[in-house]
Amino acid sequence: MASDRARMLEAAKSERLWPRPPLWAMGLGASAAAFLLAYPFLFKTPFSHHLMILILLYALMAQSWNVVAGLSGQISLGHAIFFGIGAYASTVLFIKYGVTPWIGLLVGMAISALAAVAIGVPTLRLRGHYFAIATLLIGSSVQIIVQRWDWVGAASGLYVPINRTAPWFYLQFHTSKVPYYYLALGAAALGYLVVWHLRRSRFGFRLQALRDEPDAAASLGIAVARHKVMAFMISAAMMSVAGTFYAQYVLVLDPERLLSADISIIVLLMTVLGGSGTLWVPPS
Fold first, then answer.
1. What is the DSSP letter of 156?
2. Most distant pair of Cα atoms in the chain: their distance
3. Angle at the Cα of 119 (from 277 to 140), degrees rounded to 5?
4. For each of the chain's 284 residues, which pLDDT tens digit applies?
5. Angle at CA 261, nearest 5°, toward 78 and 103?
């Protein structure tokens, strides 16, 4: 009897937690990846490149929101804060100190993560629509502050100075949108990879437990507040990457647009309509 139980336990341990996808799904995924890689050469007009760049950018933003809402169950209406932080951090460092946007991207991610802690510690204890209302009000407050902050351009915004000497150093490509496309594709792919890894990690399982049954998860010893803040930090950092890329793409920063609640609501709608908590959210 003991040997049978040991054999059953070993068999259970050897089972795959996530079943291997069927061959047709793997083939479809490989075909989609090949299509995305070849897209700029199949559709050569600047508009087709611009359209796909925005689609990939919103895919990254949707995955960012998916981390905090789809996995941990907190509905945020203030994610435009982190989008704006990423845009302003890289641009201000470039304009005032000549720092490459690559460094600005990392600084923006760090500031966004710290902002997520400052916002999340007092508000993530709220549940349901209370947290959503709190983040909406905080987002509106940040927009008003930036619109009156002269150091970052106030309501007039900022214009990224054009530099044609080192395109990859300054993230400015003036002859083609193809480099922007592959940068957006790489950022979106990394966003999907992060969510894919989170959903299969212990941390991701704890977040999903908090989402479904927070009281039961807390009774099992899961630190509710700490896990929610960590998910909020990851989500904020991903959103900041999208903001940095957008700023270097359009070269114009306007607080009325970058910090608008419309961005948060659009990203929310994309994720919810595509399946919150799943990997393949819109615009996939």
1. G
2. 77
3. 90
4. 567 677 776 765 666 666 676 777 678 888 888 999 999 999 989 999 999 999 999 999 999 999 998 888 888 899 999 999 999 999 999 999 989 999 999 999 999 999 999 998 888 878 778 888 999 999 999 999 999 999 998 888 899 888 888 889 989 998 889 999 999 999 999 999 999 989 888 898 898 888 888 888 888 888 888 889 999 999 999 999 999 999 999 999 999 889 998 999 999 988 888 877 777 765 44
5. 60
Dist CA 126 CA 124 (whole Å): 5
Strands (E), the chain: 158-159, 252-253
158: left (phi over 0), alpha (psi -120 to 50) or beta: beta
The structure tokens listed for 119 are 């916002």
Side chain identity at 159, as an amino acid letter?
Y
Predicted TM-score of the model (pTM): 0.88
- CB-based contact 72:228 (threshold 8 Å): yes
Owner of token pair 């000549």: 98
Distance, CA of 88 to CA of 240 (rounded, Å): 10
Please return the burial class of 265, using the count of CB atoms within 10 Å of its CB with bins 0-12, 13-18 and 19+.
Answer: middle
* CA atoms 111, 116, 64, 57: torsion sign: negative
Helix, strand, coil % in the chain, rounded to nearest 5: 75, 0, 25
